[in-house]
Amino acid sequence: MTISRRYLQFIRSVSRNRIGKMGVVLTTSTFLMFIFMEFAWFVGLVTNAYIGLISYLVLPLLFLFGLAMIPLGWKRQQQITGKTGLELLSTEFGEDGIKAAITGSHIFKTVGILTLINVLFLILASTQTLHFMDEAEFCGTACHSVMNPEWQTYQVSSHANVKCVSCHVGEGAEALFESKLNGLWQMVSVSFNLYERPIPTPVRQLRPARETCEKCHWPEKHYGEQLIKRIHYTNDEIPEALYTTLSFKVDADMQKERVGVHWHIARGVKVSYASVDDQRSKIKWVKVDYPDGSSRQFQNKRLNQDTPILEERQMDCVDCHNRATHVYREPEDIVDGFLADGIIPLDLPFIRREALDALQTHSPDKSRGVEQVRKHLFAYYQENYPDIYFSRQVDISNTSDLLAAEYDRYIHPNMNIEWGVYPSQLGHKRDDGCFRCHHENMQDDTGKDVDSDCTVCHDIFAFDSKFPYQYLSKLDTFEVESAIHKYLQESRMEQY
Known about the structure:
By secondary structure, the protein is an alpha+beta fold. It has four domains: about 5-135; about 140-200, no CATH class; about 220-325 and about 425-495, no CATH class; about 330-415, no CATH class. It contains 15 helices and eight strands. It has a five-stranded antiparallel sheet with strand order 6-3-4-5-7, with no helix packed on it. A three-stranded antiparallel sheet has the order 1-2-8. It is elongated, with a radius of gyration of 33 Å.
């Protein structure tokens, strides 16, 4: 008897009742469908994450369910016929099928071969499932309504080529197990609409930064200074550029005379803090353990000492870079960036003011809000500058499309995400950031506060000035910022 005939005989024999037949059909069909879907993925016919969920989660589960039905059907057949397992085997496969041999009986070899095929299939399916779930597209699109905001910001971030799992899971079997266990609860939350809106931050399940961020951004890499030039525009008829230029001290080397901001994560330094709120924005105390074994603790005099502590943690990268990837930009930053890059023409009257008004549209329906943003500039220029409305249609249209795309990216009413929902703790431009700890009321036992002088972190070359390097020019003792002007010139002269 050929292998194919033996296999067909085996299939007919194990599917003598409805349960067995359903098991065989389900197992065979899911197996063939999985192979077909793998081919479709390979040649690029299928790319949708929802199809991936079916291929790598649903089909293997159905395959296992089908396999389980086959012995259940066999057991049921025993009950119906009243025969023992051996008697039923003899009836279904004949004496030749169960005859003992050196290599085992025919039925034993058939079961062994099929078992091996099943095991290999399940290993392949499991491997492909893990690989599929490691892809950013799965994270961002499989739970579309929930994760779409994060997916949108991820694609335009500096980490767009970094897999989600690199930061959210980390390395090792323990990290993988914890992430999948947490993922099960997330699936339940999505399925039964139990998730919060917006998704709360900070993310509590993140691995420590030393296991994730520092794989690429290790502290020793931070040295010297970085020149940062920010351009802000006025809301005048023709917007005027104002510059804020900073020399940002980024050193992490505690041995240097001028230590930069990254000393918080320097080797041998441990900064711990206690927060009294979910956002880690209200800090009750800060403790610093130095490389020489000494320590120092600061208490926040603003807070009642009886205020309960919600969390104690060692400070790491995400305490400042809390939006390292999923950056929700503010309207002013978006518009100023487009103006600085020349993407939005400066010569459209009051373009900055009107672009901001357009972006700050409020609508409970996202598609309607996007359309309102797109129409805003047309309506404004048609009413107030009809000549410009007719002569600059292309510029107005391009600008409107840009603004609508940004609104679509950052505003998600279904998730209660509006402008300013997610604070950024990097710096102190809009949110407390550094000032959560660096303020005069954070004091040690001697009454000395945490240093909050501007020059600890950066030197200021210009602040909202028409000139990018205002304070490097000749000192005018009558100017409002003459003190910082004088400090900067003197400190730089000492340095160089």
